[in-house]
Specification:
2 domains, mainly alpha, 8 helices, single chain
């Protein structure tokens, strides 16, 4: 065939590949995307029910304050006052329900560096340190109180 339709078989193959890709996508989507996805927005409708069915493991600051008001007051003047107790100490509902249940001792240096390690992604108002230069990678607690980490001259 000569003229403008000489390469039509290439276009037909391309259209066939495109149609096969759409068919594959449609079958894969029907197979892998749950039926309740998108019912109330861009998530699975049953996700809320499934999350609500999980057991509660966090006690909340109010429960911590019942026994540890002195520690909460200690943190009050610092920027750490906005951080929930269980952010650092882990889930504490069992301990709040039964104070005899021991809590795990936190390893301060890696815990502090989760927020305070210097990197380019931190906002400028976030105090950051290079652990090797700042403390030779030693623990933070000999110099800083975890609940009110300001140095003495800053208080």
């Amino acid at each position: 065939m000569k003229g403008p339709l000489k390469d039509v078989e290439h276009l037909i193959r391309l259209a066939g590949l495109f149609a096969a890709g759409l068919l594959f996508f449609g079958v894969a989507r029907a197979q892998f995307v749950p039926d309740d996805f998108g019912k109330f927005g861009h998530y699975r409708a049953n996700a809320v029910t499934e999350a609500a069915a999980k057991p509660i493991v966090y006690a909340g600051r109010a429960r911590c304050t019942e026994c540890h008001e002195d520690t909460v007051n200690e943190a009050a003047p610092s920027k750490h006052k906005a951080i929930a107790c269980e952010t650092c100490h882990g889930a504490l509902l069992k301990h709040a329900d039964d104070p005899a249940v021991e809590t795990t001792k936190v390893d301060a240096q890696p815990l502090c560096l989760r927020c305070h390690a210097a990197n380019t992604g931190k906002p400028s108002h976030q105090p950051t340190v290079v652990a090797k230069d700042h403390s030779d990678e030693d623990s933070c607690v000999p110099c800083h109180n975890a609940h009110d980490p300001r140095m003495d001259q800053e208080k």
